What we know:
With 118 residues, the protein is mainly α. 64% of the residues lie in helices and 8% in strands. It has a 3-stranded antiparallel beta sheet.
Amino acid sequence: MLEPSHNHELPTIPGKRYFTIGEVSELCGVKAHVLRYWEQEFPQLSPVKRRGNRRYYQRQDVLTIRQIRSLLYDQGYTIGGAKQKLTSDDSKDDATQSNQLIKQMISELEEVLEVLNT
Length: 118
């Protein structure tokens, strides 16, 4: 899973339902062509495709991309190793993803509280 310490390096995920590939690229620190490649390699990534074959990612997709980025760039996994890790994580523990989402939401709420207090 994406470690909480890595969340500070990347921008917080806005509370939107869908994100374009450009937005996801900025949120995850990965170029658009890399995202399109990862879609082919990782079956967990399946953005909604609409008119003109435009991709729209959901919040869970963004979290998965951040996890893939962490595995490949921070932890040194190969594409094959990251695939195995994600597959074993998916079958093993959905609670970990829920915990990560809760931590992200708490972090975002704390930031909103700071802004409101100033």
